[in-house]
Amino acid sequence: MQNIHQRACRKIGKYLKIYSDIFNSRLLRETTVQRRKFTSSSPKMAPRNSPRNLRVLLDMDGVLADFEGQFLKNFREKYPQDPFVPLEDRSGFYVTKQYYALGQDIGTKAFGIYEEKGFFLSLQPIEGAIEAAREMADMEGVDVYICTSPIKKYTHCVVEKYQWLDKHLGKEWMERMILTRDKTVINGDLLIDDKPNITGGMSPPQWQHVLFTSWHNRDVTLQGGQVRLDGWLPHSGWRDILERKRQEINK
Amino acid sequence: MQNIHQRACRKIGKYLKIYSDIFNSRLLRETTVQRRKFTSSSPKMAPRNSPRNLRVLLDMDGVLADFEGQFLKNFREKYPQDPFVPLEDRSGFYVTKQYYALGQDIGTKAFGIYEEKGFFLSLQPIEGAIEAAREMADMEGVDVYICTSPIKKYTHCVVEKYQWLDKHLGKEWMERMILTRDKTVINGDLLIDDKPNITGGMSPPQWQHVLFTSWHNRDVTLQGGQVRLDGWLPHSGWRDILERKRQEINK
């Protein structure tokens, strides 16, 4: 029990130290701000409280790139005689799981569709995604990263994800690219992703999960601190979600 | 000035709240530990303080894979008449920069060496690296990730990095792989990397930088919280660095 008291006292002591640090740094910051007034050209964000940049992690498949639509198109073209799952009947994150339920061979065929050379590069951008990503990246005080998980048969997938970015957003977007099977260890404020349950080595993750609506997750109930984003069109409210979070991290 | 006082008082108030939380959670934890004594089979780590896992990020080139050695070998084989930089004369992180100093054409040739198909897959493991990585991954309370930056001409590099992992550590290591040009946003406790200055979107990063000794960084002075690791052989002390950090994050 004595330990607990000691620990609390140390904590309080530490924060009395921080109290003096705040005092000193505030003085320092005020000096800096005075200087900035004369050197910087009308920044969009007030430098007064030195807000830090909001880090937004954007998933690719199902958020920027239309994985589901291309998958169905290719499947129906390649196997016109086989049963398929219309987009409006999709449920569950893994499309192949639903196809396996139609038969072992159908599941295997489904896997083959997105393991094929060219599949990931051929994905069409989701409506408004490219414009939104560009606008976001241009926002002052916002850092955008692409945070995407390659499939296990990575042979074509990993390079095509880079090529897709090149093609639709430009070569310089490679600097923002993060390929990882575990997104929990990426240090963002928001992760915009269509996968409902994202788990990994870090629990809880640093980021808040923005569940991006896709055919397969329309009926999923939000959990924890999740919020939902229904698309990239102007009325979807993505800017509000970013703005709220930016205020939250800087308050 | 009054604001500063208010802020400090709020901080102290907050930590008085934490004080009571510590008290409550300690009681809760003690109950849990009691239960564990009868249910868990002799864990290597005492569960008493519920320590969290240490996250170690391992760079590939220059840490697991011998980039410098293979580069020089290929360069000399391909351009036997051209000047080159012996390993013991290497300085500066970017090998091509030093080759450009020998002539524009030499620099261009140097670039070509590691942009060639097969280069990244052909790299030899650094002595002891594979054994150390395996041992680390098997350690209780340690999570290992591979954290590596692809070169800008990513065509062969990205897929070969995955293939290299497959070949030397096994398919399941793909789950640990993080490809990123910005390592500062990866949430680790230690980053073992041979690049002396690692900057990016997050400053300071979450991790402590363990500078892995390479020909090009032997004479670099450590800065900030950096520590140095001279190799993967038993006497190099990598286990001590991990153990110290694990204690630090759980104290």
From TrEMBL, chains A, B:
- Spans through the membrane: none
Cellular component aspect of the GO annotation = mitochondrion
Q: Which GO terms describe its molecular function?
A: 5'-nucleotidase activity
Signal sequence bounds:
none
Q: Name one GO biological process term.
A: pyrimidine deoxyribonucleotide catabolic process
- Judging by the UniProt lineage, the source's domain of life is Eukaryota
Q: Which residues form the active site?
A: D59 (nucleophile), D61 (proton donor)
Name of the protein: 5'(3')-deoxyribonucleotidase, cytosolic type-like
* Gene field: LOC109462907
